Amino acid sequence: MSGTGGRNGPGGAGGSGAAHGDAGPVLLGVRHHGPGSARAVRAALERTDPCAVLIEGPPEADALVPLAGDPGMRPPVALLAHVRDAPGRSAFWPLAEFSPEWVALRWALERELPVRFIDLPAAHSLAMPEPEPGPEPGRQPESGAEGAPGDGPAPGAPGAALRTDPLGALARAAGYDDAEAWWEDVVEHRTAGGPGAADALAPFAAVAEAMAALRETYGDGGHPHDPVREAHMRLRLRAARREFGDRVAVVCGAWHVPALTRRTTVTADRRLLSGLPKVKTELTWVPWTHRRLSRHSGYGAGIASPGWYGHLFRAPDRPVERWLTRAAGLLREEDHAVSPAHVIEAVRLAEGLAAVRGRPLPGLAETMDAIRAVLGDGSDVPAALIHDRLVVGDVLGEVPDGAPAVPLHRDLTRTARGLRLKPEAAEREVELDLRKETDAGRSRLLHRLRLLGIPWGEPVRSRTTTGTFRETWRLRWEPELSVKVAEAGIWGTTVEAAATAKAAADAAAATALAEVTAVAESCLLAALPEALPQVMRVLADRAALDTDVGRLARALPALVRAVRYGDVRGTDAAALREVAGGLAERIFVGLPPACVGLAADAATEMRAHLDATHRAVTLLSRPETTEEPGTEKGGPETGIGKGSPETAEEPGAGQDDPEITEQTGAGQGSPETAEGAGTGQSTTASTPADRWAQTLRGVAERERVPGLLRGRAVRLLRDDGRLGDDGAERLMGRALSPAAPPADAAGWIEGFAGGGDGDGMVLVHDERLLALVDGWLTRVSPEAFTDVLPLLRRTFAAYGTGVRRALGAQIRRGPAALAPQAGPGRGADPDDAVPVPGFGSGLDRDRAAAVLPTLHLLLDPAPPADDPLGKAC
Amino acid sequence: MSADGWKTTEEAAEETAAQTPGGARREPRAQASKGTDGGAGGAVLRPHAEETFADELAALAAADDRPRPERWRLSPWAVAMYLLGGTLPDGTVVTPKYVGPRRIVEVAVTTLATDRALLLLGVPGTAKTWVSEHLAAAVSGDSTLLVQGTAGTPEEAIRYGWNYARLLADGPGREALVPSPVMRAMADGATARIEELTRIPADVQDTLITILSEKTLPIPELGEEVQAVRGFNLIATANDRDRGVNDLSSALRRRFNTVVLPLPGTPEAEVEIVSRRVGQLGRSLDLPPVPEGLDEIRRVVTVFRELRDGVTEDGRTKVKSPSGTLSTAEAISVVTNGLALAAHFGDGVLRPGDVAAGLLGAVVRDPAADRVVWQEYLETVVRERDGWKDFYRACREVTA
């Protein structure tokens, strides 16, 4: 056996410094996360039987080695190193069951052999500036070193950039796209054939030779830190040899093998290592998942098929047959009819494909093609299922309780201390004033924790105030929350980073549209701008595919609130606004058909959607609206052009503050704007508000829409001044005409005037409308009256005393005082100059002037102009 | 009973002999003879693949030193190269016959090499027939063993028919038998092709089960059977998104490896296909050529692709997909239609208004659901797009 150790490759590779007697250190250059490498490593270790194992990794982790043998430890796990005072600066070394490092680690632990990590200490690597990411030949075979998750470019974290790996370079030279396929073909499949255990080291010899050639060409491959790291490895190797003799095995990235055999002096290596920056670091084990190993999820280890690798590593023999059988089993569980005959044919096809492609045995690509063509009838659906569940897989690692605390916990403790929030078991309520820095910070922290599923605080409805700058929280720290923090550690190393990652994942996993909007809203509350784009993306996609207008309408208000909130906080809400606009458009298109033929309950629900959407659209179209009519942008002009020419009646309002004009245009109580908005009827309406008005008009005019909704639509239009002079009257007259069923008419009245004081005032102020209601009511037959009474009661009982009294007084004056006729009455006042229906013609200047002194005090300290009203008229 | 039976058979004899099996059989012969006297009588409109690319096939066969399955003209590797194109060591350039994922061709060829039947699926216009013809040409050197599937394809087209004159004169025997292309392929160890398999009635489809699993075709009338010799295989094509097709029974489906041919991968490729086809159709309809219409074609293709894929070309917005297929073939017909409108009722220039109505018809197949999908698409995607204002307006007009 020692003889085999002697003919180990590195000696031949480059001026062996280890050719000392018959057994030098066994250098096992591996491909990280390669199952082939892992198997080969195990065989080589069995063969050479070293007395110590050295592994590429941070030496600080030596103390954590025993945990790897703990029964509670189940891969995939990762070694996590982070700067003690800045958990955001961290690095991961993920280890899967099929990672050669993990195999070596477990092999040594089983035999109670010493294990040493020999890479540069994390204290240095985390302190060093990030090497410039750029085109780098020859990937630094960093054992899956990662950037900090989500936390932007963490300084000092060994590069997360995808580096070409050296075996990949060899594979490409051999005409392979996939390094693992190449390794399988040239190493795994070739050596598996022969029983020759004597060859256990042959692949490593060959790889070392190839690496020596590569390093001769590429030097350090553009990684300035590599010489330093390798110097450290050499020093650790020397120390190990002093301690354990020459029979030590080194498992490291193949790239480093030539460097470890290079003849250098201790002094030269020491010199390289002197003066390195240093930070205080801490290390721990954290659970990892297969999904994070795969390259789909941001900061994975860059292996696309961890499930497949795991299978290759575990399968004792016939990997292809076993794999396709597993795939068939999974498909059967999902109700695809897959028979053993299918599996047979799939295996044949995979083998045939391998032959056509010139590979010794089928690999993942061949088996996937076979699955698609045979098991899946050519469809992508089963193939996607297999990819998700088998090729990547849902394996979640576990770490024993004894592992040191995760950095997330530290970050939480630190942040909480900074905000003077103490974890207390007793329940207490705090009120936060978001205008204060500390309170805002507390709110953010609590919102983030809620996102992470750590319910330290629960928001409570405030008893004292409803202002948006106050929040009330009920705080209570329970011991199991610590466990939850540890669990949440998988999302990141700081509360912010973890919450960002969690929010994005939550949004992607959400099933209902409203859930996604809720996540979007909490992203804003928790101040996670980084998560927003991803959440928005999901939201837009969901909205596009959702066919239920109700769900869309439920989602819109939260989104628009988010837009407004984002505006207030000065964050870039453009993306949000775009999504909200898209959502609104979908509602506009889908709403009218969805209102048809609804039962009473559904109509009530839809009415709520109408109101919510209306408010949302009003909010949404308030700031700059640069939609269709071109690129003209600019405050006052947009304001007036969008609203209506008629608002020119109040010239003081709009000149320098578009917001006010907008408000008058879109808000309550300026029915004058009616005709101007009428232009919105052209085929290409310009603003969302215009198109919403068009939608409402469609609802109002549709016969098969329940009265409640038609009434509501008319009311909303009227309040926005989009119905013209007698539009509301005309529609009301139609809805209340004798031919309409009384119940429907009562519903119309409820929709139009129901809901409360504000909604009742319209009848007080517009006598013609009141006359219509009055006329209709007196016409209702006694039997029908009993039917509609509850509806009417519901409508009118909601009004406050004042409104009811005013209404009563008007009614008492009798029909003579009201409009002459119920019915499609035009001509309550033949004088068309009347701007507001129900009011006298012209302006009563004396009465209007009474308000001027007060207004003047409010707006402008200068003496009043001669006759501001005169200008206005 | 028996007299009656004879009588009906006699009547049927004339029809069948004239139509299906005999017809299918005569066709290649007729073309072959045309091919031989081509020098005298003028070139055929469209020669077979193995004739058109005879040089390439010969060069490939000469250069091909890999193992060939029995009765294959080329090795599987060379067949894949014939379809995908490449350059041979002797410098012969093999033109690509199929432009698309390499994976698909490899799976198809391997399927044939592993003795499994191949089912090519895809919406119209994805080169299913083209691929099957070239595969047969490269594998067996003969792409003419073809059965065209229709709703009226009889069992005789797949198994065998009778030459009733011979049957009456000589009695039942091999001479009176009219073999189908499939039967001949079995006997010769060649590749048979069935077009539009899912159009064939289910009971007729199922006659393939024995052929594919037992590899024999019994002839009970003669007490004989035809056993397939090595090299026999079958390529079927089917359109997987049309309605009203006869779906394959699972027993039959199990005998096939399925390869789905994708739609054109890039908008440019699809625009190219559409405009070329439209040009051809336009010539045959004597429509004036409309070069200015390229914008409109691009627009139609974009609309089709976006609605089909459920996502806009920039990948930023998802859209709902309507219930229709929206295949490239339909895009072609929309444009052709618009061209005819422009030529006969307009000023000869293809304008948005000319294609809008056709588009609406192609997209809105289900009046309720699809209309909402289409309107949503118009409002959320088309309206915002630069330079699409006319198009948007035209679509709004026809939709309203």
Automatic annotation (TrEMBL), chain A:
Residues 1-18 have a biased composition (Gly residues). Residues 1-32, 126-163, 615-691, 817-840 are annotated as: Disordered. InterPro entries: DUF5682, LolB. It comes from the Bacteria. Transmembrane segments: none annotated. Residues 672-687 have a biased composition (Low complexity). Pfam families: DUF5682. This is DUF5682 family protein.
UniProtKB/TrEMBL annotation, chain B:
Residues 1-48 are annotated as: Disordered. InterPro entries: ATPase_dyneun-rel_AAA, CbbQ/NirQ/NorQ/GpvN, P-loop_NTPase. Residues 118-256 form the ATPase dynein-related AAA domain. It comes from the Bacteria. This is AAA family ATPase. The lineage of its organism: Bacteria, Bacillati, Actinomycetota, Actinomycetes, Kitasatosporales.
